[in-house]
Amino acid sequence: MIFGVLAWFEVKRSFMNAFVLAVISVTFLKGFIVKKRSYGFVASIIAVIFAFLMTLVFLAVGTFSYGIFGYFALPAFIWYRKRLAV
Amino acid sequence: MKIAMIGNPNVGKTALLNALTGGNFEVGNFPGTTVEKKEGKAKIDGKEILFVDLPGIYSLEAHSLDEKVAKDFLTKERPDLILNIVNASNLERNLYLTLQLVDFKIPMILVLNMIDEAEKRGIRIDAERLSKILGIPVIKTVAVKGIGIEELKREILRGGKVPRVEIEGNIIKTAEKIAKKVVRVEERRIDLTEILDDVFMDKHLGIPIFIAFMWMMFTFTFTVATPLTDLIDSAFSVLAEYVSSLNGIVFSLIGDGVIKGVGSVLVFLPNIAFLFVALSLLELSGYMPRAVYLMDKIMTTFGLTGRSVIPLIMGFGCNVPAVMATRSIEDDRVRIATLLVNPFISCSARLPIYVLFAGLFFPNAKTIVIMSLYAFGVAIALISALIFRKVLLRGEAEYIIELPPYRIPNWRDVWILTWNRTKHFLQKAGTVILGMSVVIWFLTNFPTSNIESSYAGTLGKLLQPIFAPMGWDWQFVLAILMGAVAKEVVVETLSILNTPISQIMTTSQALAFMVFSLLYMPCIATLATIKAEAGWKWSIFAVIYSFTVAYFVAFVVEVIARLI
After folding, report:
1. Residue B155 phi/psi, 5° resolution?
2. Are B367 and A16 contacting, i.e. CB atoms less than 8 angstroms apart?
């Protein structure tokens, strides 16, 4: 849900960044529908990587992206990692 | 003492070579990284040993060029010892090659590499029993972590043993029987590879995730690297200005020629290094072959096979090793088709052209324009492959695609891979590009220092009518001509000529110029490799075909872009 909203906010700034946020959102959603934790795990990995990248972009050129809020997925990543015992 | 290192693709042979010799050879996490033999020397207890890392092969039946390389080495060079490296997670399939090696009657040691991954997957191997069955020493190793290397060194000094194993029926059945005797699979927890593949290979999400990763890679390459490119740009500008302000022709050559020319290319070093870091991470993590698998249906539609994809991916770095990587393709028609379309894959040398033109003409959509150019190159490569396979290289082809496990990339391997590739770019800057800067400076300063009437001006104006349909000024035509040596020289030429690009070119012409630079003829080094791998006929064909395609497509792009 959060990533869907972020994608909506981002679409006017950068279509492709919004696309990445939408992919994260849909991946979480599919995991919820098919009841498989692997989707949430992968979605949270992508979200954290994307947040890190957007932080680097902000530091390099000062451009803000809502992708920075991808760090919100960090607790989810830890939770899934424990549950999946990877 | 000469030791041959032989095994299936992607079992960690090069990582083992690095561990034994302290070398810095490139490793990958996909089959086919090594396509020619590599040599590394080491001293073990004062004894000088030459290790020869042979290309990864599944058998010695010599269907493909790399199988032939390995077989020829064993028969003609007769090494003193064979290190047969096997993937501990897939013993049965690896034993097929092991049993074929028995016929050579050369002392052998079996290396059970990546034992940690096998154990994580619940696979237990009775090494002692395996050693008794095969009659040779068996050592467990994890090459990337240096585990088992000392024991292996001790065993190497003992010289190994000539294998004595009875083949019951055929080799496949014997391998199966041996594996059954020594491998035990325990109840295991879910594997990381299975978890990730669930999602990355999902039929609906696989491709969107791939596109998302590609976008992230390009953002990292072009946006994050910006402060570094700006810094290098300022440094070279100040230096060139200072040197050329000093009186004398030598200072003009150094300032306006060498520093300005080489600097105009070195400015893009951060972009190139960042691209290589991202590519290395994707390759070493094991994600790349998944991308290949996702694209497999598309590849088959265009007459290529899964095996063609690795050379195509390698082409994003440099087309020279990519053309060489086609050796692992068994079917000769597919190999030639893959090799011919490879120069359409945008190598790092073309990146400075895109960054320069996209930055000037599409400042707000720089990344998406460059990403589209990369995708466009792939599309042209696939369409060309289809044409070749339907017209010149007809016939069906079969293949096997192997997916390696996911691994967290080792920073040392990322560094080696990135450094080796970036080093190649720096070497080019210090040789070809430096030499070309002197040539271009000479052409622009003689017989008169007025550029319009210099050799460069005369040559550019002479050739300009050929490109008149695209509306490019003579400076761009000259840049294209010089760029045939190495694509980086295009930017270098424009810089030495002091071309006011945005003033004498329209957006549609710039787009057509980028497309032409992407597609027109392979550089000299790639051409030489195509000649070596496929012969004169195909290298001449590659030049004519790519130039024709580039000319036609650039013209169409210019017309359409102008109308829009």
Report:
1. -65, -35
2. yes
For B315, list phi and psi in degrees, rounded to 5. Answer: -60, -25
Domain range summary for chain A, segments of one domain joined by + = 2-84
Rounded distance between C-alpha atoms, residue B277 and residue B291, angstroms:
18
**Is residue B30 predicted with pLDDT exceeding 70?**
no
Q: What pTM value is reported for the model? A: 0.72
Beta-sheet pairing, B47-53 with B2-7: parallel
Q: Coil, strand, or helix at residue B167?
A: coil
Q: Which residues 6+ apart lie within 8 Å of B522 measured at CB? A: B319, B343, B530, B542, B543, B546
Does A29 reach chain B within 8 Å, measured CB to CB?
Answer: no
Residue pLDDT, tens place only, B489-514: 899 899 988 889 999 999 999 999 99
Parallel, antiparallel or unpaired: strands B138-140 and B108-113: parallel
Domains and CATH numbers, chain B: 2-185 (3.40.50.300), 208-395+419-563 (no CATH)
Token pair listed for A68: 């920075």
- The SS3 of residue B3 is strand
Q: CB neighbours (10 Å) of residue B103? A: 11
Q: Which two tokens stand for residue B250?
A: 């030598």
- Substitution target in B120, B197, B224 with the highest count of A β-carbons within 10 Å is B224
Nearest to B473, CA basis, from B451, B499, B492, B491 = B499
Q: Would the ipTM clear 0.90, i.e. be above it?
A: yes
The confidence score (pLDDT) of residue A18 equals: 94
Q: What angle do CA B453, B457, B460 make, to 5 degrees?
A: 150
How far, in Å, CA of B95 to CA of B99, rounded? Answer: 6
Given a contact cutoff of 8 angstroms between Cβ atoms, the answer to whether B147 and B141 are in contact is yes
Helices (H), B256-329: 260-266, 269-285, 287-301, 306-314, 319-325
Searching chain A, which residue's CA lies closest to the CA of residue B189?
A85
Cα nearest neighbour of B223 on chain A: A57
Q: What contacts B348, CB < 8 A, 6 or more positions away? A: B272, B275, B276, B316, B317, B318, B421, B425
